[in-house]
Design a protein that fits this description.
By secondary structure, the chain is an alpha+beta fold. The chain folds into 2 domains: 5-96 and 267-283, Gcn5-related N-acetyltransferase (GNAT) (Aminopeptidase); 100-263, Gcn5-related N-acetyltransferase (GNAT) (Aminopeptidase, 3-Layer(aba) Sandwich). It contains 10 helices and 13 strands. α5 packs across α8 (217-231). One of its GO terms (biological process) is cell wall organization.
Length: 285
């Protein structure tokens, strides 16, 4: 069984659906990212480190003109497996997926989940429940994209393209897009992923209308995602990244629900073309 959704067949199909070329090396997913001058780099998201013979990776890199290979380890054992399986020298890098996240145990009664939240979070959920808000599942990302455009500008982060979110909803059956409305106006929207195989749900992307913040719609929406996951029999809920320095507001919002902070190991990179890698490093901080 695949240990996480980033190594799943559906995630591979999604990557292909947005124009990426993919490979499997010892059943580990590699995603090719195109660069100028016909260069590229390989990405292995949440890999287990079981890459088999790295000579095959080197040959593939030569064929695809890849400058480097980037592994976001799934856990510390991924690093141990990698170190034991090769004499190649890897360098440490920043992870692409969130290195620090918050995971909530949802295999418990709803009353207990509410009781273990911070008082302000619990209050905001109950307040939102009194606001006559309507929550709908959607298949089109129009409302989500409008809210994401606002949110990314407000919080100073780079969002994916509109096509990225839409193709994710279209291609991956484990993805669900939910939006909160007040008087037919979308005020908060989120993309959840429900991994039934590994019994865990993810809050992947979220956006909201700041002008309607008094409605506390994001709290109600998050509670909706957790409730769906519980009904599916999932055991954990991953808030998908926290960072007190870069995103203090979002991090406070997530921490209010409780849970355990998890930190994964740093990324590992294998460089194939040192000169071009230095050029890449100068333009990609």
């Amino acid at each position: 069984m695949v240990t996480n959704f980033l190594q799943s067949d559906n995630w591979e199909r999604f990557q292909q659906g947005i124009g990426k070329k993919t490979f499997r090396l010892n059943n580990q997913l590699l995603i090719k990212n195109q660069l100028p001058f016909s260069k590229s780099w390989f990405y292995c998201p949440w890999g287990k480190g079981e890459l088999g013979k790295l000579d095959e990776l080197v040959q593939l890199a030569r064929k695809e003109n890849a400058i480097f290979f980037h592994l976001d380890p799934f856990n510390k054992f991924s690093i141990l497996i990698l170190e034991e399986s090769t004499d190649f020298r890897f360098s440490i890098a920043k992870t692409i997926q969130p290195q620090k996240t918050l995971i909530l145990d949802i295999d418990q009664p709803r009353d207990k989940l509410l009781a273990e939240m911070k008082e302000k979070t619990r209050y905001n959920i109950r307040l939102a429940e009194k606001k006559n808000l309507i929550i709908k599942q959607q298949t089109a990302s129009d409302d989500f994209w409008r809210l994401m455009t606002q949110t990314s500008q407000r919080d100073c982060f780079s969002a994916h393209s509109r096509n990225y979110y839409q193709r994710m909803v279209e291609i991956m059956p484990e993805i669900e897009l939910w939006t909160v409305f007040v008087r037919d106006k979308a005020v908060a929207s989120a993309i959840f992923l429900f991994d039934r195989d590994n019994k865990i749900g993810y809050y992947l992307h979220g956006a909201s209308d700041y002008s309607e913040r008094q409605l506390m719609a994001p709290y109600l929406l998050q509670w909706q995602g957790i409730s769906i996951a519980q009904k599916m029999g999932l055991k954990k809920w991953d808030f998908w990244g926290i960072d007190e320095d870069r995103y203090p507001g979002v991090t406070r919002f997530k921490l209010g629900f409780g849970g355990q902070i998890i930190e994964r190991p740093p990324a590992q990179r294998l460089i194939f073309q040192p000169l071009w890698y230095r050029v890449y490093s100068l333009t990609h901080n």
